[in-house]
Amino acid sequence: MRFELSDDQQLLRSSTRDFFTKAAPLEHSRRIMEQDARGFEAPQWRQLAEMGYVGLVVPADRGGQGLGAVELAVVAEEAGRVCLPGPWLDAVLAAALLAQANGQDELLRQVCEGHKIVTIARFDAPFAGAAEPATRVEGAKLRGTKYFVPFAVAADALCVVTPAGVVLATAPFDVTPTSTLDLAQRFGTVAFDHVATPLGPASLLEGIDRLGAVGAGAMLLGIMQRCLETTLAYVNTRAAFSRPIGAFQALQHRLANMLLRVESTRSAVYRAAWCVDANHPDTALACATAKAYAGDAARLVCGETIQMHGGIGFTWELDVHLYFKRAKTLEQFYGSTEEQLERALDASGFLGADR
């Protein structure tokens, strides 16, 4: 199959790159990461909302842009290129979830306009296998604890996953910030004793998880592309033995492998996005495969970027460590590589129904 972006999608890519280059330069994002306790800046967030990026996949009659997974991948790839700080992808997924629920039109409108921030709280235990009761709904009350809640400190409401389905809880929240590798991706532990507003069954998350896999995979693609470009520029200017180090065959082989990973990720991510929009039978397999491959590929490409920059690759002043940290965060969330591999095996029929 041959896949190419339409003229409108090409225009979206061009305009998004121009916007992020001006509104979210990395030197500005660095200051936000280091100085703002929330990990993002309110004026920049409102700009994102005004451009329609928060309500990207929300239907137009519900206050969004009414675009699909391919457009989400286009914007997410550009967000990855600039290492965009803040809860953009989390808010996009929460908005898509609210759009599927009934009775949340006003909150959805405020999210799309950038006036409120909503994210999804999933994890009941701080690590796999922990013996801790799940967050639960007792009568009209939500009780329990969620871990690694994205941008919990800044959230005005949380979509909370429980055994009984997905419920909405509104701020204020009792939040304990979690130490993070990536200063622009903040998490917290939230203790709930809130009124629970039902949003729907847990099956609502199936489509949201696939969008999350596409969005995170595309962000990883943008990170890898930027790392490859940075590395190519460096090896063509850094000289050793009176010639650029990029002229040495050993480094050329490593660069070729980086390019292979980038382009393979591009194919996997955009095929998955197309499958989502086309409601293709292979959607579950394509999304899981794209996210799993992107996580592994980004680890290699970002690691090679640091190594091929030599001694300066490990310094705080060089930007490449920011991309490495963002890649590690994205690898673990929106379905970790291990989880996505299980989903891929399940979707392909290799795992039995009674496992």
Largest sheet: 4 strands, mixed
Label the overall shape. globular
Structural class: alpha+beta
At the fold tier of CATH, the topology name of the largest domain is Butyryl-CoA Dehydrogenase, subunit A, domain 3
Order of helices and strands: HHHHHHEEEEEEEEHEEHHHH
Give the name of the CATH architecture of the largest domain.
Up-down Bundle
Could you tell me the strand content as a percent range? Answer: 5-15%
Report the average pLDDT across residues: 92
The CATH superfamily of the largest domain turns out to be: Butyryl-CoA Dehydrogenase, subunit A, domain 3
Tally of distinct domains? 3
CATH top level of the largest domain is Mainly Alpha
Helix content: 40-55%
Characterise the protein shown here:
With 355 residues, this protein is α+β, with helices and mostly antiparallel strands. The chain folds into 3 domains: 7-112, Butyryl-Coa Dehydrogenase, subunit A, domain 1 (Orthogonal Bundle); 118-200, Butyryl-CoA Dehydrogenase, subunit A, domain 2 (Beta Barrel), CATH 2.40.110.10; 204-348, Butyryl-CoA Dehydrogenase, subunit A, domain 3, CATH 1.20.140.10. Helix content is 51%, strand content 14%. β6 (174-178) and β7 (187-195) form a beta hairpin. α4 (69-81) runs parallel beside α7. The longest helix has 31 residues, at 205-235. It is globular and about 75 Å long.
Descriptive terms for the model:
355 residues; alpha+beta; Butyryl-Coa Dehydrogenase, subunit A, domain 1; Butyryl-CoA Dehydrogenase, subunit A, domain 2; Butyryl-CoA Dehydrogenase, subunit A, domain 3; 3 domains; 4-stranded mixed sheet; 4-stranded antiparallel sheet
